[in-house]
Amino acid sequence: MCAVAALGLSALTVPTAGAAVIAPPTTPPPTMSPSPTPRPTPKPTPKPTPRALTKCQIAAQAKNTTPSKPFYRAATKFGMRDGGPKSINHVREAQYRLRWAKVYKGSVTGSYGPATRRAVRTFQSKNCLAPTGNVNVQTWAVLIQRTIRFKSSIPTVCRGAGWHSCYDRASHQDFLFKNGKLWNVWLVRGGAYSTQTRTGNYKVTARYKEKVSSLYDVKMYYFMPHSGGQGQHGSGFMVDPWVGHSHGCINMYIKDAKVLFNLTRNQPLRVTVYGAWD
Questions:
Q1: Residue 155 to residue 151: CA distance in whole angstroms
Q2: For the chain, where are the alpha helices, taking DSSP H only?
Q3: Which segment of 23-27, 40-44, 102-106, 273-277 scores lowest on mean pLDDT?
Q4: Cα 239 to Cα 85: distance, rounded to the nearest angstrom
Q5: Which residue has the higher pLDDT, 191 or 57?
Q6: Measuring CA to CA, which residue among 158, 208, 216, 155 is closest to residue 191?
Q7: Terminal CA-CA length for the chain
Q8: More exposed terminus of the chain, fewer Cβ within 10 Å: N or C?
Q9: What are the CA-CA distances from residue 203 to residues 223, 251, 263 (Å)?
Q10: Contact call for residues 271 and 201 (beta carbons, < 8 A)
Q11: Contact of 243 with 253, CB cutoff 8 Å
Q12: pLDDT single digits (tens) 59-92
């Protein structure tokens, strides 16, 4: 056992006294780069909400309204009346809208008398308009904009590209949009309960200045069909939009139908019908 131990020891290299001891090379510690300071994610700059126009700004914009511009009606003057369907002067519409503007409490008669004139002057005085007592084109444009009903119920699809006519069966309003901008609002009526104007999204398929219905043998002025035999046109029977019904079409005053017809002539017109039957 001792011999084996000696052999084992002789194999070891033992440094002699005074000999230098060589230290094994040391690896320097890795250099740590400082972590970059995180940059905050930039927040998108919110788009400013457009301010609503003041009454006087609306009045100024409406000053030079024409049939090719938004919210047009021909002037309605003291002493006028709505006669038959072919001699409508929009007196009833003015009276309805003056009611909604809370300046008129009289009946909707279709005759432009002193009470209607007083209401018009009151409305004009409150809306930066000259108090003439007549509903000129400027006053009409302001009156229509100030008396739009149930605007929040208009479907989003109505604000798409191009021309779009949107008829709310519940409120008897036909909204016309151009590239998302409200262009006009007309008072209209639709089909009876048994012949309701169909709801849905459509597009005008033809245009006729005058056409006779093959089913009912009546003239339809400025007729624009969009769903089978249903469409919108000037009515030879409608005097008050809240009296009576059509056979399914959207009935307009003949003068209003002409404006719509000419505005969208030779251009695509989409139609949306919505709302509860009334």
A1: 9
A2: 2-10, 55-61, 91-100, 114-126, 137-146, 254-263
A3: 23-27
A4: 5
A5: 191
A6: 216
A7: 120
A8: N
A9: 13, 17, 16
A10: yes
A11: no
A12: 998 988 899 999 999 999 999 999 999 999 999 9
3-state secondary structure of 261: helix
DSSP for 48-106 reads PPPPPPPHHHHHHHTTT--TTSTT----B-TT-B--STTS--SHHHHHHHHHHTTS--S
Helix pair 91-100, 114-126: axis angle to 10 deg = 50
Closest to 133 (Cα-Cα) out of 107, 98, 89: 98
Predicted confidence (pLDDT) at residue 10 exceeds the cutoff of 60: no
State pTM to two decimals.
Answer: 0.82
Average pLDDT over residues 111-136: 98
User: What does the pLDDT read at residue 9?
Assistant: 33
What's the distance, CA 108 to chain centroid?
29
List the beta bridge partners of residue 231: 225
Q: For a pLDDT cut of 90, what percent of the chain falls above it?
A: 77
Residues constituting the chain: 278
* pLDDT at residue 2, as a whole number: 39
Relative orientation angle of helices 114-126 and 137-146, to the nearest 10 degrees? 80
Confidence of residue 41 (pLDDT cuts 50, 70, 90): confident
